[in-house]
Write a structure and sequence with these properties.
2 copies of one chain form a homodimer.
Chain A: H1 19-26, H2 30-37, H3 48-61, H4 67-72, E1 79-84, H5 90-105, E2 109-114, H6 120-128, E3 136-140, H7 147-153, E4 159-163, E5 176-179, H8 181-194, E6 200-205, H9 210-225, E7 234-237, H10 243-252, E8 260-263, H11 266-278, E9 288-290, E10 307-309, H12 312-324, E11 339-341, E12 344-346
Helix pairs in contact in A: 1-2, 1-3, 5-12, 6-7, 8-9, 10-11
Chain A binds a DNA duplex (16 and 16 nucleotides) through α2 and α4.
DNA sequence: TTGTATGCGTTATCAG
DNA sequence: CTGATAACGCATACAA
């Protein structure tokens, strides 16, 4: 047991051990302790004797550096801010996990801000945007519906990187890393048309960025491939599992009914699968469903969900590299192309060839 | 547009505005600025004229206090550490969301540590346990499988609270808030036996704490109610969705087959539901399945999962109150009763009355 | 090889 | 009413 711990109940009133304490205990100057503990010995020679004595005392006293004091002197805080669009969404939760890992690999810890919090607008300025606590900020998910947050962040003194903010080139306030939504939707549509579907509906949300791009990719595809009227086959709903019910009901009332649905993400797709089950619509026999993201539970859905696997690891890695990496920060990224990674279609059992007309 | 922002690309090289800057611009002493901006005016009178002038200049310059400098002077950091057992698990992800909200309501931001990270053992000391960054630490999920982390945290200078660490009274290193696992399992078993099940299996993980308690609650219930042999009906697997497959296969090979399974959590339960689907076992007709947690996607499973709803909001609120609330910190909590909240059985379509013998 | 002094941005304690 | 000045814990330029 070290001297610093008493082994019983945590005593949160003990005073932290400072360099000064170590210095006094060792009978040297505080600066000497600093040099030894920071291994500046390469440049400034230190007698082996004092070095070892100081090191021993430091460990014995369980000395730990005070990060804030270092930060005050200009050292990086090793804190990476993360503002997540909606942490309750399964996809963002897994993205956050990936981000946390990527950050930690570089010795960074994540400071969380949830954009969906009630007072996000007001608190953006205080808690989360106290930028000086962080070395950089990563935005996860499209946050353009939080205008004040974006406005405050643009022109921040630290780097701000946006992940999954859509991929259009112009007018982006931050460097962006994302997924090729068009390619993803095309892959889904190719898959469905290849197995005979012609009446393909789309269920999305009214959010911007990725969601918007997936919708327009769907529309383009329909126009190009001369598929059934895209207008009445589109449903924009709230991004909740329970949204599937109403969307499916109104879609199913159409004539001709869609034989397949492309959902803008897995949350919606799983909601549709569940709604189909509740409505006695067989998936995939009566209706094929494709999602987007490949959240962890997509594989375990009943039936397993055909979806587009998000290259989460790559996107997060690129984002972290931009945020806290050594590469130069782009001077002007307003018209810089976003970094884009490719999704991959994972075919499971929620899609099947269209049944021959009975 | 304020003076401080240039409106084009974020310039992360600009120097932050300090009190000194404000003071110079206002032609007063820096200490005066501090007093005015901190509203110490109640006690120390300040001329209205300078007050207004300083305040105007401060806003004009977009001055923001430097939290680290304040922390250095003993102010709280307004940072709450959170170490999550496994952030990729859907339940812990939602718990984290709740924790984040509860913290922010008190003006706190969350600093994340994921116990599953590769180097958790080593990094526990550095990144996460740099306790001085946080005012308190909340442990989410049982972390006793990280002995070094727990060891470092016990006897910490700051408050450490454990959530979902099981509820046994003795030998807990931290104050604990959790769920009544026994009551939950009893409710599940009561439900199943009430609709005729006698051969009830249990699928859990080999983790400690809650998982352990749910298993022993199952065993006790079986013994008390004289249900079928509990020994061969128990499967302990890794906490992954894919674990369901093997667990179900071996369970299904038994004679007599179980007619129902209680899973220790929803991840396992959903894995079982999916495995049953793949194995052409009808849920609930051939097999009833009960989960534990009521993760967001449980309601959208096919069929909807009968499960025990975790009182997440209450547990998190109690934990945050303990960690950063105003109440006294228990001097010795080694034998103090944990705070326990009740789960609630949510009956959906994954359970049904046992079929009369064909 | 080591000690002294300074400053990072704040707040608090003195004087004036 | 306000202005110097000393800390907070650390890193470093400068002295010795």
């Amino acid at each position: 047991m070290t001297i610093g711990s008493n082994g019983s109940t945590g005593a949160q009133d003990r005073r932290p051990v400072t360099m000064k304490d170590v210095a006094e205990a060792a009978g040297v100057a505080q600066s000497t302790v600093s040099r030894i503990l920071n291994d500046v010995a390469e440049r400034i020679p230190i007698s082996v004797e004092t070095r070892e004595r100081v090191q021993a005392i430091a460990t014995q006293l369980d000395y730990r550096p005070h990060p804030f004091a270092r930060a005050l002197r200009g050292a990086p805080t090793m804190l990476l801010g993360a503002v997540v669009r909606d942490i309750t969404d399964a996809f963002f939760a897994s993205a956050l996990a990936a981000l946390s890992n990527a950050a930690r690999e570089r010795g960074y810890a994540l400071v969380l801000g949830d954009a969906r919090a009630k007072a996000a607008e007001a608190l953006a300025l205080t808690a989360v945007l106290e930028e000086r606590q962080c070395d950089a900020i990563v935005l996860v998910g499209d946050l353009r519906n939080e205008p004040r947050l974006v406005e405050d962040l643009r022109g921040a003194r630290i780097r701000v990187v946006a992940l999954w903010h859509g991929t259009e080139r112009r007018g982006r306030p931050f460097p962006t890393v994302g997924v090729d939504n068009r390619a993803g939707v095309r892959a889904a549509m190719d898959h469905l048309t290849a197995i005979g579907h012609r009446n393909i509906a789309f269920v999305g949300t009214d959010a911007l960025g990725d969601m918007q791009e997936r919708l327009s990719a769907y529309r383009e595809y329909c126009a190009l491939s001369d598929l059934a009227s895209t207008k009445s086959y589109v449903r924009l709903v709230a991004n909740k599992i329970s949204s599937g019910e109403r969307a499916l009901a109104t879609l199913w009332a159409l004539s001709p009914r869609p034989t397949a649905i492309v959902a803008a993400n897995d949350t919606l797709a799983l909601g549709l699968v569940h709604a189909a089950f509740e409505g006695n619509i067989a998936v995939p026999d009566d209706l094929s469903i494709v999602g987007f993201d490949d959240v962890p539970l997509a594989a375990a859905a009943v039936p397993g969900l055909t979806t587009l696997r998000m290259p989460t690891a790559e996107i997060v890695a690129a984002g972290v590299e931009l945020a806290i990496g050594t590469a130069d920060w782009p001077r002007d990224f307003q018209d810089l192309a976003p970094t884009v990674f490719q999704p991959k279609l994972i075919v499971r059992r929620s899609t099947a060839a269209i049944k021959p007309k009975a």
